[in-house]
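Input.
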Amino acid sequence: MRYLGLVVLFAYGAAHADGARIGLEYESEKDNETGMMNDAVTVKPGWEFSKESLINLVELLIDRNQDANADSDGLRARETKLFIRLRHNRDFNESIGYYVRGGVGRSINNQQNFNYAYVEPGLKYKFNEKWEWTLAFRKINSIDGTDGQRVRKYITGPSFGLDKNNELEFRYVKGYGDKDLKSWQVGYTHKF
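Output.
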C-alpha cells in the first residue's frame, strides 16, 4: 500500500511518455590538492516523460572511472558508480527555464564503498533552437556516514542540438568542500 503512490505516479508518467534515450559522457577531472588526474566514462540509459509530468526524466547512470596514475602509496584508484537520477524541469518563458535533478547511488571502489546522494538545481538559457547554456549547482554527500564525500559543484557550459533526437553537451565543473576539483565533460544524448 505504501508504494501505491509511486506506482500511480509512474503509471501516469508512462501514459504520457516521450520515450527512451541513451547518453554517453566522458569526463576528465583533476584533484587540485594532489594533482591527480581521473578519467570517467558514463552510460546513461533513461526514459523521458512529457513536459507536463512532475518527473520529466528517469535515468540510470553507470559510471566507470580510474586515476591516470598510481598515488604515492602505489594505489591506482578505480571506481564504479550506479546512480538513479530523476529530473523535473519547466520553462519560465521561451528563453529561460529551470530544472531540479537528483537521486541516490552506490560507489563501488578499491578504497571504501559508500552510498551517496545529490541534488542539483539549474538554469538554462536558450540562445536559439539549437544552442543553450546551463548554469547549475550540485550538492553531493554520502548518505551512510562515510567521511570525505561532502562536495559542492558549480557546473556551466553549452549544449548544441544536432537535430530533434541528438544533442552534444560541454561542461566545466568546479568542486569545493571535502574535495578541490575541476573537470571538463563532453556528452552525447540520443532520443529514440
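The mean pLDDT is 91.
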